[in-house]
Amino acid sequence: MPAGMERSERRIPIQSARRIVGRRLMGGQSSHLPLKVNSGGVMPIIFASSILSAPMLFGQVEWVQNSRFMQPIVQALQPGYPWYEILYILAIIFFAYFYISIVFNPNDVADNMRKYGGFVPGIRPGRRTADFINDKGESAGHFFPRFEAFIFSNEIY
């Protein structure tokens, strides 16, 4: 996988509020919140290949090998066959979105920013910041699952 795609990120500008600590004025710095475009890494590929290896495992059982109903299904879900490829691509895309939705919680990020005096310029702290971060994270993450599925489906051949 290209290293530029793996390390790419979407930066959201963040300002920190100024505070007076003792006699000193602290804060007021500008920074950014890095949102990785590929938050899931290779986990969606691992999940997809694990799920799609189950038919091969069940295909080793004697009653499946002797079944007129199950044998064509197991045969169609072997690597290199069209149904396997289609399901593999769809599983990678599904698990990429599923993994990101579990790992990344924009409400926690917005709450932590609010607690420590950080804010996104032009966006009110709290729920609107969480919605903004969620929208930017989703827009950043739409391309990579499809790219990942394309790259790894082509590596099979």
Characterization of this structure:
57% of the residues lie in helices and 16% in strands. With 157 residues, it is of the alpha+beta class. It folds into two domains: 1-39 and 104-145, no CATH class; 40-103, no CATH class. The longest helix is centred in the middle third of the chain and has 22 residues, at 82-103. The radius of gyration is 23 Å and the shape is elongated.
What's the SSE blueprint?
Blueprint: H1 3-7, E1 9-16, E2 18-21, E3 24-27, E4 30-36, H2 43-52, H3 54-58, H4 62-65, H5 70-76, H6 82-103, H7 106-115, E5 118-119, H8 127-141, H9 143-154
Antiparallel strand pairs: 1-4, 1-5, 2-3
Helix pairs in contact: 2-6, 6-9, 7-8
Please sum up the structure shown.
The protein has 157 residues and is of the alpha+beta class.
Low-confidence stretches are none
Task: State the total count of DSSP E strands.
Answer: 5
Return Rg in Å: 23 Å
Order of helices and strands: HEEEEHHHHHHEHH
Domains (count):
2
Distance between the termini: 16 Å
Which strand order does the major sheet show? Answer: 4-1-5
Discrete helix count: 9
Q: Let me know the largest β-sheet.
A: 3 strands, antiparallel
Mean of residue pLDDT? 79
Structural classification: alpha+beta
Residues in β-strands, percent: 15-25%
Oligomer: single chain
The level of helicity is 55-70%
The general outline is elongated
List the defining traits of the structure above.
single chain; 157 residues; alpha+beta; 2 domains; three-stranded antiparallel beta sheet; two-stranded antiparallel ribbon; 9 helices; 5 strands; 16% strand; elongated
